[in-house]
Amino acid sequence: MDKKARMEELIKVLNEASEAYYALDNEIMSNYEYDKLYDELVALEEELGVTLSNSPTINVGYEAVKNLPKEAHEKPMLSLSKTKSRDELRDFLGGHKGILSWKLDGLTIVLTYKDGELFKAVTRGNGEVGEVITQNAKVFKNIPLKINYKEDLIIRGEAVISYKDFEDINSKISEADAKFKNPRNLCSGSVRALDSKVTKERNVRFLAFNLVSTDKDFENSFENQFLFLKELGFEVVPYKVVTENNIIDTVDWYSKEIETFEIPSDGLVLTYDDLAYGASLGTTAKSPRNAIAFKWQDEIKETTLTEVEWSASRTGLINPVAIFDTIELEGTNVSRASLHNISYIEDMKLGIGDKITVYKANMIIPQIAENLTGSGKLEIPSTCPVCGEKTEVRNDNGTKMLYCTNPDCAAKKIKSFAHYCERNAMNIEGLSEQTLEKFIGLGFITSFKDIYHLENHKEAIINMEGFGNKSYDNLVASVDKSRECYIYNFINSLGITGIGLANAKLICKENDYDINKLMNASEESLLEIDGLGDVLAKNIYSYMHNDDNIAMINSLLSELSFIKIEIDENSQTLSGKTFVITGSLNNYANRDELKKIIEDKGGKVAGSVSNKTTALINNDTASMSSKNKKAKDLGVEIISEEDFINKYLEG
Fold first, then answer.
1. Which of 36, 112, 225, 318 could make an S-S bridge to 120, C-beta 3.0–4.6 Å?
2. Nearest 5 degrees, angle CA 620-CA 622-CA 624?
3. 3-48, which class in CATH?
């Protein structure tokens, strides 16, 4: 390919990546890959003396999406020129004092204040036209809606979401392939959401980094602008004052600090403190000359691809992870990196035994930089690693992904495993949905019984990210503790449709807390249980007469022992009585405490008032609530806590 054709190809690829990143919140290539191709394009343009009109070296950002109103910026937002050299940063200062701050990885926002109030918020967009997100900005976690400054004020800053908030939000998303890829992706979608309620729930923060327009005198100091913004109540991007003498040491400090910095950052920004000097330098077609961005010089090391681990998720998506000979990067040992999807594997031409280079994106996330061998011999599994059924490659919006075709794959049943481990079921701590998804995806858990034999995978678990010896020991201890349980917690853990803890207690009590009696109970005997109902009686009967369920329960009974429940018939003073509890309580910590007292004495607690209700317990006996009204209509007694204690416990 000649150099002109290569230049055109690079422009096409880079513009597609920019469109995905800025307009669609989809990162289709890493920063490392983008920078590498961008630098190649710059070199070709310099060599040929040609710059095409659609080149990303002269265009800024990408067009704003169509879902939000657009508005032109008062002053165009240019992109900073970049370097990865500490020496170039020092030379850039040229004897001047500078401000070195984090280059935050979020979404740039321009705020306008008029008469002391937030008037407008606009995204960066393409640098000239952005999207109006004023209503969303008003619900950012830390943004001042009113400030003690009445003159017009325009500031720029970065909307960001912390790593912790990112992880918390992702942990609540059940579908593996619906999870957000990174905090920047999450932040961009949150800031531009059409419903500001979504934005508010995401804990978006705004960190100011530049004062664009104001009449105030800052004594020719960029730092004084930061101090002024702090006084007004803005959170500003953390920064340090630097000179030629300390800038390299300061960059080294930042390179260590990023390991624990709570906000995503992809580098640093160096700005002249001398405002007049910086302004006198003017701009290029794309970049201002008063500041420069520093991109981390990625530490890259060579290693050997030894294995690809295929991990199934609850949606059936099977994710590939590269396993390679351990190397040390940025001070930590690394042996794993995501391979994303089948298209990525094909583009990288991967094969077991290939020599690859690895780096940490933003000095944090391991990524493969290059495949030096390019054998292309990696076999895509034809069967699911969890259930062993057939897989298929599907094209999802131009990207090839691997899926399990089995609708009954254990990986798709994470909710049932999570329910089994819940506090009111088997009460196993340490097996969150996120952890279960990893274990199931790796084939450690395919049935409930496997939970009791995690020691078979001890080494693999200890070496998993987020685990270690202590986490493993705590998990195994919790699993072992669950081996001795109440039968009703076990019945609840099975996830039988409609059978929660309350109904499980009712069923177990009527079957003398005997698992064999319960498993062999006739449909007629179950239908006779007062308070159970026809539908639930049929559900429990059908479940207990399914061959697969019977085999599963029997396999678990070899792992478990039930705590014997001694019943003092003399204490069953509430036997045959049903209560409904509503409203706030005074004598009990919560409804569960009162419910336990009633059940311990042989009574039942229902969720709604019926003609079988003995009494409705409500401290506001005169309330016009729907439960009070229904109780009055049915002639059911409405009593306070004190009435209940005096009449039913002490009477």
1. 112
2. 100
3. mainly alpha
State how far the Cα of 374 lies from the Cα of 305, in Å rounded to an integer.
Answer: 11
DSSP assignment letter at 469: H
Q: CA-to-CA distance for 261 and 279, rounded, in angstroms?
A: 31
CA distance 318 to 309: 10
Is this prediction's pTM over 0.85? no
Segments in 173-246 forming alpha helices (H): 183-191, 196-201, 222-231
Report in angstroms the alpha-carbon separations of 161 from 201, 265, 349, 466. Answer: 11, 11, 35, 21
Among the four given CATH numbers 3.40.30.10, 2.40.50.140, 1.10.3720.10, 2.102.10.10, the one describing domain 301-404: 2.40.50.140
Q: What is the pLDDT of residue 37?
A: 85
- DSSP per position, 388-412: --BEEEEEETTEEEEEE--TT-GGG
What are the sequence ranges of the domains in the chain?
3-48, 70-294, 301-404, 410-482, 485-562, 569-649
CATH superfamily of 70-294: DNA ligase/mRNA capping enzyme (3.30.470.30)
Between CA 475 and CA 463 the distance in angstroms is: 14
The rounded distance, in Å, linking the Cα atoms of 504 and 488 is 5
pLDDT(452) > 60: yes
Active site residue 349: no
What fold is seen in the domain 569-649?
Rossmann fold (3.40.50)
The DSSP symbol for 649 reads I
Is the predicted pLDDT of residue 30 greater than 80, yes or no?
no
Banded model confidence at residue 636, pLDDT cuts 50, 70, 90: very high
SS3 196: helix
Active-site pick, 66, 97, 103, 141 = 103
Q: Which of 590, 588, 565, 568 is nearest to 644 (CA)?
A: 588
pLDDT of residue 409: 85
Same fold, 410-482 and 485-562: yes
Half-sphere exposure of 632 (CA within 13 A, CB side): 10
Neighbours of 590 (CB within 10 A): 10
What is the C-alpha radius of gyration for the chain, rounded to an integer number of angstroms? 32
Q: Which residues have a Cβ under 8 Å from the Cβ of 474 and sit 6 or more positions away?
A: 429, 430
Select 485-562's CATH number: 1.10.357.20, 1.10.150.20, 3.30.450.70, 1.10.150.650. Answer: 1.10.150.20
CATH code: domain 410-482 is: 1.10.150.20
Two tokens, residue 277: 């000097």
For 58-91, b/e burial (b = at least 16 CB within 10 A) is ebbbbebeeebebbebeeebbbbebbeebeebbe
Q: What is the pLDDT of residue 141?
A: 87
Q: Give residue-wise pLDDT tens across range 64-118.
A: 545 678 888 887 888 888 888 899 999 999 999 999 999 998 999 999 999 989 9
